[in-house]
């Protein structure tokens, strides 16, 4: 019996998707619920599982095709066995004089390069491997079950480029002089590489330009002394980890501090809809997560009702599934306010861009020991610059500054968050 494999129903906000990579070829045996193909939308990569066990009979669409809900992708012959040799992996060419078992009846060798191990490559990593004609088995994966990410491939290429070439033998006497290594001829051809944006990168670009074009964006800054937070983390981190199975990080403190500030300044938690201002009476805080495909923002629903442990476990879960490509569309939609942490990459100061249609975003930065004056004495404290970019159409400068001051006060005296002060 022939079973059809179709594009699953896409969310209402997603019109189409791009077929990124097939994990099976015609003739391959497939198990029920085994991932056949990856589809990339504006926000996430969707996996299409096999609806039945059997053999992949026919693939209807190739990589890079734009598809819509319900479109036919492939046919599976239910219960059939794999066609011998139909999808056998190509054998790397053997050294000179050696023979391999991949020769056909006429003695010709199968010398095609090894195909990328798509099952262990993320879509972004697969593109880089193919563009650079790499053996995917030579790249060590840092992801779950050895999954290779784009950063793994980039690191492999960097290490490969850093390996010095073997020394060249001196030219024979009377030979013409070699071209200097600093000349254009010795450096080789200067080439450009044109690569289409991924759907996620294109969507990010669209949203960022939209925010800049439609909102009156302004950024205010402050700095926070994190001595009290560091002392709490040092005192309770082991007990916290043992009791809740999660690390006590900075993000839970900042999320709680922002929620307290949002309660005091509702316009920072609001959004513009035409000529109306929509005041959200709930606190759905987006937390920016960096992945190989770009920046995505999963949302902590009702963050005001979450404990420190709930926040830390949710963020760790989001980050892991975002990088593995298994986060859902629903987890990325909505949000009334966003926090982004450029400090994890070493940023000392920046002006984040609002995640429209939200009206504000808080930027965290690198913690750095600096000399500050406390009670008339110069002391060294762990300081962080924080930035609030906001839509000046509905948020006045006074509210933005006081919002930052409230965040600062909550973090420098965490008891405020417990007592609601």
Report the oligomer.
single chain
Average pLDDT over all residues:
81
Instruction: Kindly report the CATH topology of the largest domain.
Output: Chloramphenicol Acetyltransferase
CATH architecture of the largest domain: 2-Layer Sandwich
N-to-C series of helices and strands: EEEEEEEEHHHHEHHEEEEEEHEEEEHH
- Beta-strand portion reads 15-25%
Distance between the termini: 67 Å
Helix count, DSSP H or I runs of 4 or more residues: 9
Q: Largest sheet, if any?
A: 7 strands, mixed
Summarize the structure.
This protein is α+β, with helices and mostly antiparallel strands. It has three domains: 1-83, OB fold (Dihydrolipoamide Acetyltransferase, E2P); 120-162, E3-binding domain (Dihydrolipoamide Transferase), CATH 4.10.320.10; 216-419, Chloramphenicol acetyltransferase-like domain (Chloramphenicol Acetyltransferase, 2-Layer Sandwich), CATH 3.30.559.10.
Give an overview in words.
The chain has 421 residues and is of the alpha+beta class. It folds into three domains: 1-83, OB fold (Dihydrolipoamide Acetyltransferase, E2P); 120-162, E3-binding domain (Dihydrolipoamide Transferase, Irregular), CATH 4.10.320; 216-419, Chloramphenicol acetyltransferase-like domain (Chloramphenicol Acetyltransferase, 2-Layer Sandwich), CATH 3.30.559. It has helices at 123-131, 150-162, 184-187, 199-214, 227-244, 251-264, 308-324, 397-412, 415-419, and strands spanning 2-6, 17-22, 29-30, 35-40, 45-49, 54-59, 66-67, 72-78, 217-225, 270-273, 276-279, 285-287, 289-291, 294-296, 299-300, 337-341, 360-364, 368-374, 377-391. Strands 9, 12, 15, 16, 17, 18 and 19 form a seven-stranded mixed sheet that branches. A four-stranded antiparallel sheet has the order 1-8-6-3, with no helix packed on it. It has a four-stranded antiparallel sheet with strand order 5-4-2-7, with no helix packed on it. Helix 1 runs parallel beside helix 2. Mean pLDDT is 81; it is low at 85-119.
């Amino acid at each position: 019996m022939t079973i059809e494999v179709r594009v699953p129903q896409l969310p209402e906000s997603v019109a189409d998707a791009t077929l990124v990579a097939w994990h099976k070829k015609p003739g391959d045996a497939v198990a029920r619920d085994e991932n056949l193909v990856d589809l990339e939308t504006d926000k996430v990569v969707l996996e299409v599982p096999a609806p039945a066990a059997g053999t992949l009979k026919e693939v209807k669409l190739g990589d890079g095709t734009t598809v819509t809900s319900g479109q036919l992708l492939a046919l599976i012959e239910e219960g059939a066995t794999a066609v011998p040799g139909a999808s056998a992996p190509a054998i790397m060419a053997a050294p000179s004089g050696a023979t391999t078992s991949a020769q056909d009846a006429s003695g010709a060798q199968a010398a095609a390069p090894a195909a990328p191990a798509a099952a262990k490559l993320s879509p972004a990593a697969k593109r880089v491997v193919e563009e650079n004609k790499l053996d995917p088995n030579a790249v060590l994966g840092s992801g779950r079950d050895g999954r290779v990410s784009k950063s793994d491939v980039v690191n492999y290429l960097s290490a490969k480029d850093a390996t010095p070439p073997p020394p060249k033998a001196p030219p024979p006497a009377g030979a013409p002089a070699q071209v200097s290594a600093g000349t254009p001829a010795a450096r080789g051809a200067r080439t450009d590489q044109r690569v289409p944006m991924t759907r996620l990168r294109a969507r990010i670009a669209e949203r960022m330009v939209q925010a800049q074009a439609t909102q009156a964006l302004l950024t205010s800054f402050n700095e926070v002394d994190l001595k009290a937070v560091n002392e709490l983390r040092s005192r309770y981190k082991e007990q916290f980890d043992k009791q809740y199975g999660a690390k006590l990080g900075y993000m839970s403190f900042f999320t709680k501090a922002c929620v307290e500030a949002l309660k005091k300044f509702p316009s920072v938690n609001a959004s513009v809809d035409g000529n109306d201002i929509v005041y959200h009476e709930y606190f759905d805080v987006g937390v920016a997560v960096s992945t190989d495909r770009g920046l995505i923002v999963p949302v902590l629903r009702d963050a005001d009702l979450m404990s420190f442990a709930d926040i830390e476990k949710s963020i760790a879960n989001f980050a892991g599934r975002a990088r593995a490509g298994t986060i859902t569309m629903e987890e990325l939609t909505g949000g009334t306010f966003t926090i982004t942490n450029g400090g994890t990459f070493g940023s000392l100061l920046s002006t984040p861009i609002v995640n429209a249609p939200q009206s504000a975003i808080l930027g965290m930065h690198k913690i750095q020991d600096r000399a500050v004056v406390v009670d008339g004495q110069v002391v060294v404290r762990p300081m962080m610059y924080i930035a609030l970019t906001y839509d000046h159409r509905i948020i006045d400068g006074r509210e933005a500054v006081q919002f930052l001051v409230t965040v600062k006060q909550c973090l420098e005296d965490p008891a405020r968050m417990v007592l609601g002060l």
